[in-house]
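The following record pairs a protein chain with its ligand, BES.
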Amino acid sequence: MKIQLGIKPLSEIKDGYLVLPVFEDDKKDYGVAIIKSFFSEYPKFGKLFETQILYSSNSKILLIGAGEKQKFDFATLQNLSGTAVRKLLRKTKSLSFLLPKDTKLSEEEKTYAASLGAEIGAYDPTKDYKSKHEPSMLTSVEFLADRAERGLQEGLKKGQIIAESVNLTRRLGDMPANLMTPTYMLNVAKKIAKENKLKISVLDEKQAKKKGMGAFTGVAQGSDEPSFMIALEYTGDIKSKDKWAFVGKGITFDTGGLSIKPSASMNEMKYDMTGAAAVMGAISAIAKLNLKANIVAVMAVTENLPGGRAQRPGDIVKTYSGKFAEVLDTDAEGRLVLIDAVSYAQKDFKAKKVIDLATLTGAIIVSLGDHITGVFGNNPAFTGKLVMIGGKFGEKMWELPMYEEFNEMIKSDMADITNLGHGGSHKSAAGSITGAKFIEAGIEEGTDWIHLDIAGTAWDMKPKPYRGAGATGVGIKTLVQLIQGG
Ligand code: BES
Ligand code: ZN
Ligand code: ZN
């Protein structure tokens, strides 16, 4: 899709649709007669994402409700743009969207939000799988501003770069697990590495086992598909020794293993690799934006299957950290692959700031629902900064506590730690926190670490006006912004 900036008055829009956001409590009719008469008939128009098409002899207009002016923020604009695109995708070749004025967003944030939202709205997960697929008509989107202010072009570009990563992550997430295998993921990683001049290192199962990643390979051994620990490295700050790590859970399908899941909704476990896809998307966007930082993205990629060689409940594995872990539930596999992945990032890549993303626990959905990502960490200033950035850019987050008391809940009678939390008055007491605690057992002294539990936010089976159903690509915006300095 072609996305560009238009510096011109509304009267010059002749082709395609003109899209006008309408605040509930601050309506402008732009001196256009049909808009004026529509507002006099429907004075309450303007609720968030409600739409109305108006035609006159010389114009086609789409009005979109922008809600209350005071609540307008980055996410509102992103989603208004997505709504416009989704509404008009099969109606027109081009649209011109008027960027709202007098908001608290900078010019750069406006075009960033708008171009990102447009690309997200245009994405269709069924494109490759429906034999009678109705293609979209829309090929050109223009964002209208009064003057060529500083930042407008930069924002437009940033939005397109991030959208490319977000939509790649969504595409990988939505792909069924028979196609999106660990080998497929590896091939995508190789392509991303080549495109962005990133260094790639790959451990196959044999090499990972030899290195001592017993927790990762314990999960991997249940599947006949080859598994990989993949690392992509970006060096954007040669003079500095500082290194970030983004670590992603890449379970391409989670059956639960021998602790098998019930069949209802098991299909959704194709999304259990969205953490890995997001860290790959983030490092690729950061490389394209040429940001000044050094980053390694580590992806622990395997299926979790109950094959003949699958690990059993009660198995004890030696993690790459040196600690022994008792596997009391083979369905708590995310923390197993991640404890080795975070050790890999610290030991082999010398990362001192580690952020992991994982669809780790069903319990986080019980706690926070479908719209908020759970945050855990060992440095309140670091987690606080991330939560703040997430909130500003429309990825809501909430930090959960990591008190000492929870350490007891992952102690094992037989080994050092166990992957199944226990000791609470309820069998799944503090389920998301004990998951985080297990990963923390692989964090070394002096490493700042954050764990994001994206189980509730990584996909959404309900279509929204601004985004179709499926993977969301959550996390990428926040990671990129963190590296850009907040
Ligand atoms: N991938 C799941 C978590 C999940 C569940 C994500 C539902 C999204 C929706 C994870 O591997 C898992 O199965 N976790 C278990 C842990 C438990 C056995 C301690 C869970 O949440 O039930
Ligand atoms: Zn599981
Ligand atoms: Zn899982």
